[in-house]
Amino acid sequence: MPKVRIAIVGAGMGGLAAAAALTRAGHEVRVHEQAAALGEVGVGMHLTPNGTRILQRWGLGDALRARAVRPEAMEVREWAGGTTLVRRPMGEAWTAEFGAPYYTVHRADLHALLLGLLPPGTVRVGHRLERFTDAEDGVRLEFADGGVDEADVLIGADGVHSVVRHALHGPGTPVFTGQSAFRGLVARRDVPHLPGDTVLVWAGPDARMLLYPVRGGEQLTFVAIVPAGEGRPESWSEPGDLGALAAAFTGWNEDVTALVAAVRQARRWDLHDREPLASWGRGAVTLLGDAAHPMLPHHGQGVGQAVEDAAVLAHFLGAPHPPHARAGGRRGRIAEALHRYEAVRRPHTTRVQLGSRDGGSQRLRPTADGAAPKDSMSSLVQDVSWIQRHDAEADLPEAAVPAGAPA
């Protein structure tokens, strides 16, 4: 397809990944971000092989090795006594098994790397989308400051509370899990008894503590999953009550209580997701990342799935089209490309999204007698191995949906 003018709403991880993939494919890309300045806040995140293999193809392999951490192992430890129940090597063993590295990385570091792939001026801040219209001659975007933009394609990459998703599908209903996640960073020097090269999980009867290194192991990201009261609002940035965090881990082993004592600041994230959509887009408009498939963090796949989305979308916006799409002119070719993108990606992300509801570290809860579940680590790895082995680009010519096939 000849060069397409593409407007992306949202300059988070998904929006920047989409912009990078589409720019590499030769399209004209503009990213509209509602914040007044660029910058990613937050803590660490998991970047699993299904995402890193694509980022390496985009030329970020050396930068990831320099900025991220490749953990040497994952350990499950007993919540009360602190003994190591099981240890699984990662590092080179994980790379060999899944075909690409597993990294833990600070969100701001990955955000900066993705931004560095874009030509200057690609991202426009202070642009809060209010409405859009999709017509035969293109998509018109209108912003809160009175500005407008026109494009051939609109991609909503503006997160769970996506304006684009709302316009296409309505507000949706959050699905609350009854759990909250406290998240934050501690300096490794404040907890020198804890390793700087290992993913740690302590799984108790009602709560879990996860810990992993970022920024060369100088900082550790913690994620504490605790019960939450009913009716809590959907928030990603509520200040975390450190007293409530400490109370949730009273009576746990000394490593965990020392970790909690070292926390100076945390955010509380009440864990919601949405039911999978029956379709993502319409005409020349589609969704990507959390706007399309918001999911719980238990598989560590929020960013990985957005990167996969970006790669597949760029493929189909550059792929040859069947005669019936060519006969529909430029708009017909665009609509067909977006249809094929969704038809390939939506079944996959739906499976990941639904699987994350009861997967990941949730499988490590101790049994009634306080012991770790039998083969708990094997179960956890098996739970995500199909996701991490997936290469979203490898078989796309064969995976392409026949023209006009239902999504």
TrEMBL record:
Coiled-coil boundaries: none
Alphabetical keyword list: FAD, Flavoprotein, Monooxygenase, Oxidoreductase
Cross-referenced InterPro entries: FAD-bd, FAD-dep_Monooxygenase_BioMet, FAD/NAD-bd_sf
Region (Disordered): 352-379
Cofactor(s) the protein needs: FAD
Domain FAD-binding: 4-349
GO molecular function: monooxygenase activity
PANTHER family: GERANYLGERANYL DIPHOSPHATE REDUCTASE (PTHR13789:SF318), MONOOXYGENASE (PTHR13789)
Listed name of the protein: FAD-dependent monooxygenase
